[in-house]
What does this fold into?
Amino acid sequence: MLALRTAVIVVGTVTLLAPVCASPDSLRFIACPVYRDIDQGPKSGCWLATDPASGIRYDIGSGRSKPQWGREVLVEGVASQDTDSCGGVVLQPVRVAVLQGHCNKHMLPAEGFAGRAFKLPAEVMQQMWVPRQAPTAPFEAQEFVIFFGFNSSFPSYQYSEIILEKAALYALASDPSRIEITGYAATQPYEVSGRTLAEHDELARARAEKVALAFERLGIPESVIDVRWESGAEAMLGGDDGLAEPSKRRVVISIRKFPVGHRR
Amino acid sequence: MVCLVVFAPAGNTQEALYEGERWWAPGQGEQFPDRMSFENNTGIVTTINSAGAVDTAGHPFFEPLGSNGRACVTCHQPADGMSLSLTTIRERWRETAGADPLFAAIDGANCPNLPQGVASSHSLLLDRGLFRIFRPWPPVDHDGNAVSPEFDIDVIRDPTGCNTNPDYGLASDDPTISVFRRPRPATNLKYITATGFPFEPKNGLPLPNDPLTGLPVSGNIMADARVRTLREQAIDAMKSHLQVEGEPDENDIKRIIAFESQLYTAQSFDKRGGSLTDQGARGGPELLAKSRAGVLNSASRSPMWDEFESWIDLQDKPDHLSDEQFEFRRSVGRGVRFFRERTFLISDQAGITSMNFGNPVRNDCNFCHNMYRFGNDVAPGQVDLGTVNHPFSDPQPHLPLFKLTCKDGFEPHPHLGRTVLTHDPGFALTTGKCADIGKLTIQSMRGLASRPPYFSSGFAQTIRESVEYYDRRFYMQMTEQEKQDLANLMSVL
It folds into this structure.
């Protein structure tokens, strides 16, 4: 169990990252994904989805989360000029979230498309025995932000763990008096493909508690962890891919040396 | 039966077999040597004891500790790669008319209430090599606290009668669910307990920690991951399988862990291919003992099954080999390449396709069987291969069938929906989560030839049958040659 849990229902919390209100030029739609089976090695293959508003088929497979066939997806992204190697306009950046709605499972053959080989992210988790470099002093206040998928508190593989480990190493090295872990959820409704979407309040808490559990397992004393959650999150400039709406679904880890006895 | 056979195939190193009794009885008190080799259907399996010979007299791994006369060694036999083969089980039945402690009513019978000493009461053990595993319902967590499950269980079919029995079933005073599983090998534990990465990709969290040491645990012990450490496993086994009353002795626990942790087992010789250390190959258990555990395979630095790298693309048959031996080695080499390179579509396999890889995801055998030298999962390896969950499971009419219904307010199983038919809820009996129904921990691939049948429910009687299952489960459309190559590789590990 974590020591401190504070529900803060406040919109517009000041953070070290600046909030923004306007979404960049991005597409958002709900669709049934189609898998195009192109063998370019492990984790290759293409994911396509058609925007029902325009009838344009997009390549939605370049994000860190891929669709589940037979389930609707929420697609958020920006049309890029990248070469079409799958049979659709490439969305880059792109976020894909699996929804509960059912679809037909549909798979296409290569049909002459080249597809693309899987590329490891630039930074991946090192194996256990590889020595980690501990951060060195001076230790300034620092924030780490982890973004989540729509309606999800699942820390995405080959993304979240990198940030969590960095944050934990910083916390262990800097011996902070306080670590605030604040979960946010995008609870303000918005329209996508004729449907109203909004995240549930409880998701902010679930995200924060998952990150707090991760910190606990990584050896951070629970006595310095303060778990908070806020609904009605604002978009945040400087998200990892620049997409505004997805940046509302986040956890911010604030590692600071507050004066003894301080409570915000 | 005393084994005095020595294999001496043409042009190959002799492999001396253990000269003592093949069956290692509890309390027999002989020395457990530093190297023991036994014949099996396709060759020889060898177990080495890296700390040297052990005097088993009074040793808790070898002595009956509980009320039923069993010891750990009863179900972890050196001749069977420290597991237990169906052949051995049937032989013990014949030799003892069912009186061996192996057939103890508690879990060696289909249900303890059945008349003992009658083959039909032990049919799952005698026909499939399955022991009864009885788990509390609702589940309890690792600290003994009740878990509120996300699903309800209905018994659809109960051929053993145990799940509906008023004394042993789900409606008993001590509600229990009985599933039936193969025993896992008590060897190569360095690999089973190895932690490759600090995080678990299947849930995105850091590995949980051993409450006693504070160190991360692998999550790869036992089919349903109901224990975190070898200590917890030893206690669980003593209390259940050995029927030890009260709290097990701490010194016994330490000695059991120390002993089993020094064992390494692998196939060391093949009847068709000869020595597994010839022509540059490095089969056998010695390399396992020397190597680092927990390494994720990598094509450039740690390619899977590079023990047999030199058998890939063999061109010229040396004089000391027969045509059959040479062709077998070429087949193993092709099997290695297949294992590493042949991609196929993995679909609806919770634990793999339920994370952000997508569903389906194209990958190869060493995507899941990814630990270098060993073939289990570097991460906690709970996945739903489909061996017990319908619709992917074979019918298996001899097993109980349960209907699990996910309760309102909880997410359904990611691929199978709100209602799941299963022969074994698996990991969900530990976590209580719908997403974990039918997930079972990926097994060791070493010493396979010594311990048929395969998969947790023992439905594949041979290695070839296990290959056939993968072929139809994932629509791999393997050629006959590919099936044989893969089976040959698996038989020499």
